[in-house]
Amino acid sequence: MDMANADERGTTERVLTLLGLLQQRRIWTGPELAGRLGVTPRTVRRDVGRLRTLGYPVHASQGAGGGYQLGPGQDLPPLLLDDEEAIATAVALLAGAGGAVAGAGDAALRALTKLDRVLPTRLRHEVRALAGSVESFGGGRTPVDPEVLMTLARACRDEVEAGFDYPSGSEVRRRRVEPYRLVASDRRWYLLAYDLDRDDWRNFRVDRMTDVSARSWCFRPRPSPDAAAYVQESVASRVYPHQARFLVHAPADTVRAQIPASAAVVRPRGSERCEVLSGAGSLDFTLMHVLLLGHDFEVLDPPELGSRCRALAKKLLSAGATIPPPDTKKS
User: Fold this and answer.
1) Which secondary-structure segment (H or E) carries 319?
2) pLDDT value of position 323
3) Where's the HTH deoR-type domain (predicted)?
4) Which residue, 262, 226, 230, 269, is CA-closest to 246?
5) How far is 81 from 63, CA to CA, in rounded Å?
6) Which long-range contacts (CB under 8 A, 24 or more apart) does 172-178 make?
């Protein structure tokens, strides 16, 4: 009896692992799933049958490009949400992904993409209608259309190309990309993607996109940069005509608490110092920004920033020259 219970627990854990794999990628071949689970393809077929019995719509296709795919559900699988609970959950996640819930946007979007896998078609219209009546005030993040986020999230998840219109200078151009990750900053949503026309990685502000669509054309993922680090460095530095690096004599956590993540990249350099990378329209602005932090610091790059430090020091000394120093002698 104990052996039977152990076997049942092992099967249950394996089926749950299989469900997690099907949620991670658009399509898997039988041998791929068998290799991940450490079982035979025949066992995979049996476990797929168990998922179908539980209400999960697992589709199988033959031939080149075929395999197992988790499709939209006709009935909710045992989670076990009824229709009203599913609608309420989806609307709350849509609001959170759109920025109404501070700090919850990326987590809400991940949860919403999982729910989207099995949300019956009959409920999606109700979710969209209710989402249109949800608004928020306050919060620092630029609002975006939750449906746009969902379209991009699905494209990232399913590894299919996406397209959208995007401003470039005075023009709006159509961009074709291989979407990789959605990244939420303290102010905005960004998409990190491989731009097919420019043959390079780019990040795009989601609130600037229009006419967003996902194609059915699948792509093989490329070696990619760290999404959050790439977007943060781009937003804080690369988009500006001038970049500067400073060595600040204060712990990284202290400096991060003083500078928004979208304004500078802060990297620890030991326990008591950190490197600050920032960009601006002028070198003087980056210099003043670091000066006002109130910590001792050194200029690392660019070399010409050293001369700006000396010029600024002269101006400050000249500005205070007419004011006599306070009398420190006791009367």
Assistant:
1) helix 304-320
2) 76
3) 11-66
4) 269
5) 35
6) 172/210, 175/204, 177/202, 177/204, 178/219, 178/221, 178/222
Q: Residue 134 and residue 94: Cα distance in Å, rounded?
A: 9
Per-residue confidence band for 301, with pLDDT thresholds at 50, 70 and 90: confident
78: which 2 tokens? Answer: 């045992």
Closest CA to 47 of 28, 75, 63, 65: 28
What does the pLDDT look like over 150-165, one tens digit per residue? Answer: 788 888 888 899 999 9
Q: Assign residue 199 a region: left if phi > 0, alpha if psi is -120 to 50, beta otherwise?
A: left
Q: CB neighbours (10 Å) of residue 211?
A: 11
Residue of 262, 145, 132 lying closest to 206 (CA atoms): 145
Q: What size, in residues, is the chain?
A: 331
pLDDT for 136 equals: 42
Residue 7 vs residues 1, 11, 13, 327: alpha-carbon distances, Å: 10, 6, 10, 86
Peptide bond connecting 302 to the previous residue in cis, omega within 30 degrees of 0: yes
Query: What predicted TM-score, i.e. pTM, was given to this entire model?
Result: 0.53
